[in-house]
């Protein structure tokens, strides 16, 4: 969780599980604290489908997050995969703290902070490729 | 499937389902033909875990692929999500054609072509955000 590539990453992809058992996938912006990854929803009114990631995580909290780097020089590819257990924070101090972390990381959130629910993912397993880190 | 952003994309993320029901996630390079997306495995010897994506798709062929664009100007974010049904091609003409398509798209594959198995994903559903395409 202290891999500098993970700390520096601006975007990740979150996989949850749809009610029919199929994986669901969205890009997310996120903040980290300790072994927990947070993301929030935008404040704008959302259609119900936009919250599918939240409802999926509520129903089936075993989720997976991928941070990766692509470039045409394939010797420089890498990815970090996080498996974790999701908690949906509808309000409270931890949700407020997560929103503060997101606003610190993303200037885009400063004028228009995200709202709740916040998803907290307690990371239980980190795997990266290549296993040996190359100099960056 | 004919969205120019999808045709131009160099990398996607593939979500399959692990035997324990949790989503599994890897970045992939891919080629498209008709309504089918293809990717292959590198020829180098792989540990069994590296083929998890293939074994998952064989066991549970309902998979999801995400192509997205991130930049710090959030008005320019977009994603395209493909849901489809996977077929594992252990050999045969379709696998050879897929490898040819991948070599045409990626010069990196020209000296060291990928091998089999090839995963073919017959796309059944395409969803994109924002729903209205912005000028690029």
Give the gist of this structure.
2 copies of one chain form a homodimer. Chain A is an alpha+beta fold.
Overview of this structure, please?
2 copies of one chain form a homodimer. Chain A has 136 residues and is an alpha+beta fold. The first copy, chain A, has helices at 4-8, 52-59, 93-105, 108-111; strands spanning 12-17, 23-28, 31-33, 36-41, 62-69, 78-89, 115-129. A 7-stranded antiparallel β-sheet of chain A has the order 2-1-5-6-7-4-3, sandwiched between helices. Chain A binds chain B through residues 10-11, 13, 15-17, 20-27, 60, 62-66, 68, 70, 72, 74, 77, 79, 81, 83, 108, and chain B through 10-11, 13, 15-17, 20-27, 60, 62-66, 68, 70, 72, 74, 77, 79, 81, 83, 108.
Oligomeric composition of the shown chains: homodimer
Helix percent of chain A reads 10-25%
Distance between the termini of chain A: 18 Å
Helix-and-strand structural type of chain A: alpha+beta
The topology string of helices and strands of chain A comes to HEEEEHEEHHE
Number of helices of chain A: 4
> Quick one: how many beta strands of chain A?
7
Biggest interface between protein chains, with counts per chain? A-B, 29 and 29 residues
- Order the strands across the largest sheet of chain A as they lie in space: 2-1-5-6-7-4-3
| Residues in β-strands, percent of chain A | 35-45%
Largest sheet of chain A: 7 strands, antiparallel
What is the rounded Rg of chain A? 15 Å
Shape of chain A: globular
Q: What is the average of the pLDDT values of chain A?
A: 91
**Poorly predicted residue ranges of chain A:** none
